Amino acid sequence: MHKAYFFDMDGVLFDSMPNHAAAWEQVMSAHGLRFTARDCYLQEGRTGQDVINEAILHTHHRPATEDEIHTIYREKSDAFHARGGALPMRGIHDVLHFLRNSSVDGLTPQIWIVTGSGQQTLFDTLEQHFPGVFTRAHMVTAFDVTHGKPDPEPYLRAWQGSRLPKADCCVIENAPLGIRAAKAAGLYAIGVNTGPLLPEDLAREGADLVLPDMPALLHHLRQSA
Ligand code: CA
Fold first, then answer.
1. Which of 41, 47, 64, 118 could serve as 53's disulfide partner, Cβ 3.0–4.6 Å?
2. Which CATH superfamily is domain 4-15+86-224 in?
3. Distances (CA, A) of 119 to 85, 152, 202
């Protein structure tokens, strides 16, 4: 086992990607921007700001204005919320319970969140769904980085905060760009393929291990304990 686990949030802790994809598609199309649900899965992990900027660059061949970024991201957050938001991923509670009751060299593994999200509603529901598991000190969000995934910065920040050697840290991701960020940071990365992409999409980015779901991750952790 590792001494620190860096969990991505959407599509890992929360089964939120179908509602994110539908909300992005709805709001982008209302603004005359071409962005499908499939684009959402392929771009997953980027910050909202980067996603909006790319879509406007692609459609209008210019960068997005601050105003466009704020307006579209707010509308997208509202649309996501209107669809019912997100529930915890099936099996994630067992994974977290196992880690919180494990011991590596006499210490409980650190549990971090490393996400490109800046949606306050999701952070608010963390404590509701995972009471006592996550603290702000062990969280890297869109508010904490200059460059979001696939840049290594978010995972490097978590690694620096952990004060552990890189070999003691493990990333849990569901998105190709998240795996790319983790590997660029020099970290061990497990891809858990919770969405409609192929396992190869995660393996191609250098995932050290690709698993189909959270029960498989729990099984793997138990075996390596
Ligand atoms: Ca994700």
1. 64
2. HAD superfamily/HAD-like (3.40.50.1000)
3. 11, 21, 25
